[in-house]
Amino acid sequence: MLIKKPSDIPSSEITPEPIYNARRDFMRGAMSVAALGVSASAIDVFAAPTQVVDKDLPGPDWLKKQIAGANANQEKISEALTPYEHVTGHNNFYEYGYDKTDPAAKAHILKPHPWTVEIAGEVNMPGTFGLEDLLKGVTLEERIYRLRCVEAWSMVVPWVGFSLADLIKRVEPNSKAKYVAFTTLERPSEMPEQKSRFSTIDWPYREGLRMDEAMHPLTTLAVGLYGKVLPNQNGAPLRLVVPWKYGFKYIKSIVKIEFTEKQPKTTWSMIAPDEYGFYANVNPQVSHPRWSQAEERRLPSGLLRPNIIPTQLFNGYAEQVAHLYKDMDLRKFY
Amino acid sequence: MPVLGRRVLTFFLALIPLVFIVYKTLTSQLGADPAKTIVLFTGEWTIYFLFITLAVTPLRRLVNFKNLHFRWLQIHRRMLGLFTLFYAILHVLAFLVFILGLDFSRFGKELVERPYILVTIPAVILLIVLGITSTKAMMRRLGKNWLRLHKSIYLIAILAWVHVLMQVRSSYFEAVLFGVILLALLLPRLYWTVRK
User: Fold this and answer.
1) Where are the alpha helices (DSSP H) in A186-249?
2) Contacts of A45 (CB under 8 A, 6+ apart)
């Protein structure tokens, strides 16, 4: 399969995180000096907050070591990274609550180690594997991708992970395997909302991909972000990243990967099939029934200067993935 | 406590949510999407004040014992109603300035694509009318019609609830909670009306 790369931006043009942060810290310092005056600061205090929290997250040493040794990936984008505190503080992870800040506040209850993943279905090597087995011999990469939420906000996240295709090849799906179904952990003692009576979600959370989507090199299993272990609120220890699809496809805390012949049921399309489809490709021309998808708020978005940018077809990855949907009506298969 | 003291106290208590959100804004504690945080916060407090205002009459009529009664609340109802209007206006302004970026060309599109915004337009207009006609002079001028006009607060409350219900995505908790509270506030009134 030949995949065309978009015109590469030399990595020299991308601001590394420490410099980016240092620059922001400097600006912040300058602002607080200016804040002693009055008028200059009036606008700046409404600018998006910029502080980055540098944390050493709990996790096994072998995983930390493997993440620290990740290579930089080939795909580069010129857009600024969303600061760490927002990537880890603004999450939809309904197992922990419905506010964007709930996962960061509550997900520490989860114990992501030890962790096992069941490989099942139409596959030659089914079984239950420890995280360390899945990652053995895998070279991790830092992959900087845009993340577009179906709710019309977006981020740019430096994930650490590897292509799902690498794992799929190792477990040898058979010829009947047409789809890949994923399941999130169901553990109400550590995921409090799974006990809720008001939730519209039928736990556990489920997602799926068509085989060719799952095999696409952009489709990533992430174990870290910002060069660190994946925080619980971001789906520790193992989550999916499919950059050309809406964020709800990025299933978190995966415990089961099943190869199926039929298209699997997926959580959001079970709740509201007219609003959320199986494919969920980012598409500015296909509106959600309750809001437009033509634009997005890139986070962090300032108050007086909302950071509104146009949404791109396939989230800007059309060159790489459009061929997967060549003869499909994207309005019908949303 | 003398009435004036109670009024001053009510006024400053009702400003606490505003002070809270302004403080959070100035100290950059609103997270990655401050616009949405402020819009949600002011919207929620509009509904809380609406509920508090609507609770005055049932509390006064249903809880009426020698030592425990709410007759003293009646005199503060106007201010509570005006604070409902105040937070509603903050909610609308926050949406127009922080979400729309004052780009009114997007306003029409937003209304069509987000019908949950559309339902709030009559509610906000009515609320403003109720605010304007809340003075003693207006009460005298409108006579009997004043009460008729101000009964539209029930319609406003129902529209506000519909506004919340239409936005439900993954949990009905808030919508159900608000619905139950609203029902508890409106049912006694229905009962009194029917009995008359």
Assistant:
1) 211-215
2) A31, A35, B25, B26, B28
Distance from B170 to chain A by nearest Cα, in Å? 5
Q: How far is A306 from chain B (nearest CA, A)?
A: 6
In a domain, A334, yes or no: no
- Domain of A262, CATH number, reads 3.90.420.10
More confident residue, B16 or A24: B16
- Please indicate whether, in this complex, the C-beta atoms of B33 and A300 are within 8 angstroms of each other: yes
Residue B106, exposed/middle/buried by CB under 10 A (0-12, 13-18, 19+)? middle
Contact B32 A302 (CB under 8 A): no
Total structural domains in chain A?
A: 1
Chain Cα centroid distance, residue B146: 19
ipTM above 0.85, yes or no: no
For A174, A271, A281, A319, A330, the CA distances from A333, given in Å and listed in that order, are: 26, 17, 9, 19, 5
Q: Which of B30, B33, B119, B168 is the mutation pick for testing A, counting most A CBs within 10 A? A: B33
Identify the domain containing residue A248 by its residue range: 59-146+158-274+317-324
DSSP state of A193: G
Identify the closest residue of chain B to A296 by CA–CA distance. B99
**Is the model's pLDDT at A6 over the cut of 90?**
no
C-alpha A64: how far from its chain's center?
Answer: 19
pLDDT band at A35 (very low <50, low <70, confident <90, very high): very low
Tell whether the model's pLDDT for residue A53 goes beyond 70: no
- Please, which pLDDT band fits residue A102 given cuts at 50, 70 and 90? very high
pLDDT at B152 exceeding the cut of 90: yes
Is there a contact between B32 and A300 (Cβ–Cβ < 8 Å)? Answer: yes
Interface test with A, best of B21, B113, B167, B178 (most A CBs within 10 A): B113
Across the interface, do B101 and A305 touch by the CB < 8 Å criterion? yes
> What's the gap in Å between the CA of B168 and the closest CA on chain A?
9
Q: Which is nearest to A203 in space by CA: A218, A192, A216, A217? A: A192
A10 falls within a domain: no
How near does any CA of chain B get to the CA of A98, in Å? 8
Closest CA to B33 of A145, A96, A85: A85
